[in-house]
Design brief:
5 helices; alpha/beta; seven-stranded mixed sheet
């Protein structure tokens, strides 16, 4: 199916079977019927191409409104506008919300976003008063998306491509890493920052790295974020 529709498809369970669905026209339907033995088709009402927007709703974290550009933030409320796109991070994921909650609790200063994804945490940090902010990611797409989101929100970030496990990490008062647990632990092993805000793992997990002491934790929907101080 991906050979026919490399841009994506919908997967859903139907009893013990898995059903794959795509949006197409009559020509595409005819092609699928030639390629596959079992194909059913149903008419889709106009507006289906925008229906995915219904799943992206605003959230609040750290006193900030975080939401998509087609929903207006409340007047006078600090906002982070994120257009769901090619890089991980719309702001709604529990690890993102937990990270922003912890950033709102700690002292302000310079910040490194290690593994910035879409840049939502970096922009939220700017809204909270951190500066200057450096955002890095190994994925060049994430770097481009972060720059776009920073520009759309009118905040200044220094964004470039880097591997947080191999390249030299810029100095900052705070490093925030919303990645996966194994990468967080390896990054902490080489970081020289006085404070770290880490996430990307379940509430049942805790990063283990020598030279760091946990001082705070937030858990959201089964996921966790921690504040660690260098010792």
């Amino acid at each position: 199916m991906l050979e026919w529709y490399p841009g994506g498809l919908e997967e859903r369970d139907v009893g013990s079977d898995t059903e794959l669905a795509v949006f197409t026209d009559e020509r595409g339907e005819a092609g699928l019927r030639r390629a596959f033995a079992d194909v059913t088709a149903a008419h889709v009402e106009p507006g289906w191409e925008d229906r995915w927007k219904e799943f992206h709703r605003p959230v609040r974290a750290g006193g900030l409104w975080i939401g998509p550009p087609w929903i207006d933030p409340p007047v006078g409320e600090a906002a982070v506008v994120v257009d769901p796109g090619r890089a991980f991070g719309t702001g709604a994921h529990p690890t993102t919300r937990a990270s922003v909650e912890l950033l709102a609790r700690i002292g302000r200063g310079s910040l490194l976003d290690a593994g910035c994804g879409s840049g939502v945490v970096s922009v939220a940090a700017a809204r909270l008063g951190f500066e200057p902010i450096v955002a890095v990611d190994v994925d060049e797409v994430a770097v481009g998306v972060t720059r776009e989101i920073a520009r759309a929100n009118g905040v200044e970030l220094h964004v470039f491509q880097a591997d947080v496990l191999r390249d030299e990490l810029p100095h900052a008062d705070v490093v925030v890493a919303n990645i996966e647990l194994a990468v967080v632990e390896r990054m902490l092993g080489r970081a020289t920052h006085p404070v770290a805000v880490t996430s990307g793992y379940l509430a049942s997990e805790t990063p283990t790295a020598s030279g760091w002491t946990r001082t705070d934790r937030v858990e959201v929907d089964g996921w966790a974020a921690d504040v660690l101080h260098a010792t």
